[in-house]
Design a protein that fits this description.
single chain; 79 residues; alpha+beta; 5-stranded antiparallel sheet; globular
C-alpha cells in the first residue's frame, strides 16, 4: 500500500481500484465513489474529481458508516 497522509492519498495512486457509484447518483456528478482495495480497506473519492484525493477507511470503519446511514443516523444532514 502507498504511504498516506492521515487517511488520504491521491486516487490516481490506487492502481487497480474499481470505483463504484450509487445508483442514486444524479446526472450532474454530485456523488461519491467507493472502491474495495486489495488490502481490505475501502477508498472514497468525489466523482467530480476522480484524480483528486481519496480517503482510505478500514472495512470496520466503512461498515460503521453504512450501518449508521441505514439506521438514519445522518438524516439530519439532508435537511
Amino acid at each position: 500500500m502507498h504511504q498516506t497522509h492521515d487517511n488520504g492519498m491521491a486516487a490516481t495512486a490506487l492502481s487497480g481500484a474499481k470505483w463504484q457509484k450509487s445508483r442514486y447518483s444524479n446526472s450532474t456528478g454530485n456523488c461519491v465513489e467507493v472502491a474495495g482495495l486489495p488490502d481490505g480497506n475501502v477508498a472514497v473519492r468525489n466523482s467530480r474529481h476522480p484524480g483528486g484525493p481519496a480517503l482510505i477507511y478500514t472495512r470496520s470503519e466503512f461498515k460503521a458508516l453504512l450501518l449508521g446511514a441505514k439506521d438514519g443516523e445522518f438524516d439530519n444532514l439532508l435537511q
